[in-house]
């Protein structure tokens, strides 16, 4: 029995993790949850899983949650109500919860950084679904992992695929971040990308892209922010930086390949030129389950992959004209230091403004590029956590200010 703390329990990763806990009740139990504003779903999760602790990102809503739990019918009420926690301190306490064996980090964006660090400092193993932990703060996280001995298991489908392909190599003995040394025997990583919502669009038409267009993923069911990142291919650029920290390869040996069918989830080339790939239907439950069960594999009743049903697997190079964010991410990764934190924060803020229909889709890379150019003069090569957080806050404000100037300059209506 493995005890889980699920950070971001009402989001896509969190809900799927809890579904797996229900599918395998003899293997997993939930001891802590954290959530944002979706109290309706959170109450349902508390009823079903009876966690020991629940933390809300917004402490002002704790009294409302307490009232809801106290008002439950006796048949629904858990035998013991959870300890209720709030704010950043509450999230960090839930992440470091004493009885948890594995912490699933499903909080989207840089908001997940501090709870993830709290879990690492408490010596917890992590199923990492929060890209920003490494992208924004890789230089901070690596030493913390070395000190605590925590193991980091990648829950993203692409990094899970690489991790699975490396089982049987020296990397598999530790299952934790590289400390800047390349993974033994690993020559090249190929991250596969679906191509997102605009993979078949003419780049000349992207100025017409609406929020509805950008949030309609052809293959995967994901949250709105990551679906927009998929449309811009920023998600893959972020994964390149994450792969650099996870597996120790330089950026010249981490490639992106557009694979529209999303059946091959990534590939590795080993020193002897063998290429290994992990295949499966596009379903996030598989990489999440592998994190939860590692080093074991659990028998599932899920739909089996039938390549005759798939019919064909195709690949193409990503078009930089359609995906300018990809090159921005590579450039930020190569610059290192605090540049990935600035780039990531700028992207988060720009995507938020796009989802609020305050800017156009093509404004996203413009705003990111502007922030990265401005940050070059202030880049810190070996940042502390406070440096990372300061750059994150600065980049978000810089995007808001630039977007306001952009709107004042070109007040044309956004696509309907």
Order of helices and strands: EHEHEHEHEHEHEHEHHHEEEHHHHHH
Terminal CA distance reads: 51 Å
| Beta-strand content | 5-15%
Q: What is the CA-based Rg, rounded?
A: 21 Å
Strand order of the largest sheet: 4-3-2-1-5-6-7
CATH architecture of the domain at 2-150: 3-Layer(aba) Sandwich
The tally of strands reads 11
Task: Identify the CATH homologous superfamily of the domain at 2-150.
Answer: NAD(P)-binding Rossmann-like Domain
Low-confidence stretches: 174-179
Q: Kindly report the CATH topology of the domain at 2-150.
A: Rossmann fold
Average pLDDT confidence is 92
- The share of residues in helices is 40-55%
Individual helix count: 16
Principal-axes shape call: globular
Largest sheet: 7 strands, parallel
Structural class by sheet pairing and helices: alpha/beta
CATH top-level class of the domain at 2-150: Alpha Beta
Keywords for this entry:
Rossmann fold, four-stranded mixed sheet, 14% strand
Secondary structure layout:
Layout: E1 2-7, H1 12-23, E2 28-35, H2 39-49, E3 53-56, H3 62-70, E4 83-86, H4 87-95, E5 102-105, H5 113-121, E6 125-128, H6 132-148, E7 152-154, H7 157-165, E8 186-193, H8 211-214, H9 224-232, H10 234-247, E9 254-258, E10 264-270, E11 275-279, H11 285-293, H12 307-310, H13 324-335, H14 339-355, H15 363-375, H16 385-409
Parallel strand pairs: 1-2, 1-5, 2-3, 3-4, 5-6, 6-7, 8-9
Antiparallel strand pairs: 8-10, 10-11
């Amino acid at each position: 029995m493995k005890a889980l703390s699920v950070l971001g329990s009402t989001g896509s990763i969190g809900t799927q993790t809890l579904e797996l806990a229900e599918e395998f009740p003899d293997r997993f139990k939930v001891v802590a949850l954290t959530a944002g504003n979706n109290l309706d779903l959170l109450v349902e999760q508390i009823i079903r899983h009876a966690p020991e602790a629940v933390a809300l990102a917004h402490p002002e809503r704790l009294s409302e949650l307490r009232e809801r739990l106290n008002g439950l019918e006796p048949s629904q009420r858990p035998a013991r109500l959870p300890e209720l926690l709030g704010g950043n301190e509450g999230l960090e306490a839930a992440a470091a919860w004493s009885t948890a064996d594995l912490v699933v980090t499903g909080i989207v964006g840089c908001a997940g950084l501090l709870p993830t660090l709290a879990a690492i400092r408490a010596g917890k193993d992590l199923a990492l679904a929060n890209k920003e932990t490494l992208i924004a703060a890789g230089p901070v996280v690596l030493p913390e992992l070395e000190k605590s001995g925590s193991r980091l298991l990648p829950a993203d489908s692409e990094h899970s695929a690489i991790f699975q392909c490396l089982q049987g190599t020296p990397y598999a003995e530790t299952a934790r971040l590289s400390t800047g040394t390349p993974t033994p025997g690993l020559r090249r990583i190929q991250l596969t990308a679906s191509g997102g919502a605009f993979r078949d669009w003419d780049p000349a038409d992207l100025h017409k892209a609406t929020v509805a267009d950008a949030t309609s993923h052809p293959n995967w069911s994901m949250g709105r922010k990551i679906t927009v990142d998929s449309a811009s291919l920023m998600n893959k650029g972020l994964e390149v930086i994450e792969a650099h920290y996870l597996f120790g390869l330089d950026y010249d040996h981490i490639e992106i390949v557009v694979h529209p069918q999303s059946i091959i989830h990534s590939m590795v080339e080993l020193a002897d030129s063998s290429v290994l790939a992990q295949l499966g239907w596009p379903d996030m439950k598989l990489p999440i389950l592998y994190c939860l069960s590692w080093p074991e594999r659990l028998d599932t009743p899920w739909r089996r992959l039938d390549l005759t049903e798939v019919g064909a697997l195709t690949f193409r190079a990503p078009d930089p004209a359609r995906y300018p964010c990809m090159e921005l991410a590579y450039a930020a990764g190569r610059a290192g230091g605090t540049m990935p934190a600035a780039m990531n924060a700028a992207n988060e803020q720009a995507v938020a403004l796009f989802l609020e229909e305050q800017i156009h889709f093509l404004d996203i890379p413009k705003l990111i590029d502007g922030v990265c150019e401005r940050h070059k003069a202030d880049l810190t090569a070996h940042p502390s956590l406070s440096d990372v957080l300061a750059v994150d806050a600065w980049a978000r404000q810089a995007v808001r200010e630039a977007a306001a100037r952009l709107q004042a300059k070109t007040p044309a209506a956004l696509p309907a």
